[in-house]
Amino acid sequence: CIDLNSFDHFIRQINEPDGERMGFPTIFFPMNRVERISLDEPSGSIPSMNELFARKIGRSLSDYLAQFA
Question: Most distant CA pair in the chain: distance in Å?
Answer without folding.
Answer: 40
